[in-house]
Design a protein that fits this description.
Elements: E1 2-7, H1 10-20, E2 27-32, H2 35-38, E3 43-45, H3 53-63, E4 67-70, H4 73-77, H5 80-86, E5 91-92, H6 96-103, H7 105-114, E6 122-125, H8 128-138, E7 142-146, E8 155-158, H9 161-172, E9 184-188, E10 193-202, E11 206-208, E12 213-214, E13 217-219, E14 223-226, E15 231-234, H10 241-261, E16 267-276, E17 282-288, H11 296-302, H12 307-316, E18 331-339, E19 362-366, E20 369-371, E21 376-378, E22 382-390, H13 393-404, E23 412-413, H14 420-426
Parallel strand pairs: 1-2, 1-4, 2-3, 4-5
Antiparallel strand pairs: 6-9, 7-8, 7-9, 10-11, 10-16, 12-15, 13-14, 15-18, 16-17, 18-22, 18-23, 19-22, 20-21
Helix pairs in contact: 1-11, 6-7, 8-9
The structure holds adenosine monophosphate (AMP) and glycine.
Length: 428
């Protein structure tokens, strides 16, 4: 089978690397891919933009590609799946209608309410005065979210009422996030520990992948501004067997049934960002219509089943009933190496030293890199994700940081505490 991966980040490098090792796969194409995918055996980068649906379907026809797997949310929210369907080509990813679960936070909130899926109490606003009144009546802490896509940055967890009011003002005026902020969701602050829970959906059922946990704040101890993700590990001990069963019964299965009942059966990766309360009750923080980044890097590092076959079964009508997944039992931990300044303004074009070859049990995934005149250079905020595998969280962390320490560029920056919650649990 020939596979096309759409996208150019760390998640797409992990997808392409995993697919290239799938027994059912002869060749993987990445559009546009990155220098990491270019270096993988069996993967070819093609200079086609993920937003150019017509060029992508031309590529698929020209190269005889059997299945396209979409990495990022933007093409999904923009309807890439519907375009492929209309062309009679197989595409793994939700339809434009179903991708609104990520593309519009107010849509997702209304969906959850309609289908009894637990989440923070919230209200939706387009006018400032009503939003301000609501915030003052609820008090702080309180959370303000731009309705549309904002690259993981459209959420303000406000510790004070004034901070929330300022955030709403910036969003509704269009100053903060353009049109994505012209509608806002204001919701209660949830206490607990976060976990990322990803499934493959075939429209009728969900196949859960291994759990993981991201670190969304820039600074150690989960402080500082929100980012796209500074590191992740899998499995996440907070997702015990009981919590896993509750997530499936209370969140994922109602979503699968609800999406079908609403006339938008969901096929593709579904990523539920969850808050696990002190009592073990899971609540939805957000739905994403794709795999997480950087969660994909450690989770896929542990997948032993044939990912291409799973995605094919989800879209070709064979379905996922009776599929059992095989996982590497060890823990995987990924550290994101960023360009200094991220998530605010950051430098690009700095030469990266120490990439070398992959070592046993560690893997360097590329995200924001490019080919420069004399070698590979930085080209984004999140530059690389270095994953280590170990018998426990401590040894996975040790290996990831050991590998990271051999990589250098001007103003490289990364958190030194990825996995701290799991380590604390492990040491009791
Ligand atoms: P989101 O983009 O919706 O995942 O939000 C980004 C981050 O903000 C989440 O990963 C949480 O850390 C935090 N967050 C969002 N909503 C809430 C909430 N209702 N309560 C507490 N933290 C939240
Ligand atoms: N790791 C967070 C995200 O992919 O949205």
């Amino acid at each position: 089978m020939k596979i096309l991966v759409v996208g150019s980040g760390g998640r797409e490098h992990a997808l392409a690397w995993t697919l290239a090792r799938s027994p059912s796969v002869d060749a993987v194409f990445a559009a546009p891919g990155n220098p990491g995918t270019a270096a993988e055996d069996n993967v070819t980068n093609v200079d086609v933009d993920g937003a150019d649906f017509a060029a992508l379907t031309d590529l698929v026809r020209g190269c005889g590609i059997d299945l396209t797997i979409v990495g990022p949310e933007v093409p999904l929210v923009d309807g890439i799946r519907d375009h492929f369907d209309a062309c009679g080509l197989r595409c793994f990813g939700p339809s434009k209608a179903a991708a609104r679960l990520e593309g519009s936070k107010s849509f997702a909130k209304q969906f959850m309410e309609r289908h009894g899926i637990p989440t923070a109490a919230s209200r939706i606003f387009t006018g400032f005065a009503a939003a301000e009144n609501y915030i003052r009546s609820r008090g702080a802490p309180i959370v303000v979210k731009a309705d549309g896509l904002a690259a993981g940055k459209g959420v303000v967890v406000a510790r004070r009422v004034d901070e929330a009011v300022d955030a709403v003002r910036g969003m509704l005026s269009g100053t903060s996030f353009g049109d994505a902020g012209r509608q806002v969701v204001v919701e209660d602050f949830l206490e607990g520990e976060e976990a990322s829970f990803t499934c493959i959906l075939d429209g009728e059922r969900a196949l859960p992948l291994a759990s993981s946990q991201d670190h969304k704040r820039r600074d150690e101890g989960d402080r500082g501004p929100n980012t796209g993700g500074m590191g992740a590990y899998s499995p996440a001990p907070v997702v015990t067997a009981d919590v896993h069963d509750r997530i499936m019964a209370e969140i994922i299965e109602p979503l699968v049934r609800g999406a079908a009942a609403d006339g938008m059966p969901y096929q593709g990766f579904l990523y539920a960002g969850l808050m696990i309360g002190p009592d073990g009750a899971p609540k939805v923080v957000e739905f994403n219509c794709r795999f997480g980044d950087p969660e994909a890097q450690p989770v896929l590092s542990r997948l032993r089943s044939d990912l291409a076959m799973l995605c094919l079964r989800a879209v070709d009508g064979t379905g996922l009933a009776d599929v059992a997944l095989e996982w590497e039992p060890r823990t995987a931990l990924g550290v994101v190496l960023t360009a200094g300044g991220y998530p605010l303004a950051y430098d690009t074009g700095d030469a990266i030293a120490g990439l070398g070859d992959d070592l046993p049990d560690s893997k360097v995934f590329h995200a924001g890199t490019a080919f420069g005149e004399t070698g590979i250079v930085t080209a984004g905020g999140r530059v690389l994700c270095v994953v280590g595998l170990g018998d426990d969280i401590a040894s996975a962390q040790c290996l990831a940081y050991q590998r990271a320490s051999s990589i250098h560029w001007r103003r490289i920056s990364y958190r030194r505490d990825i996995g701290f919650r799991a380590l604390a649990r492990a040491s009791g």
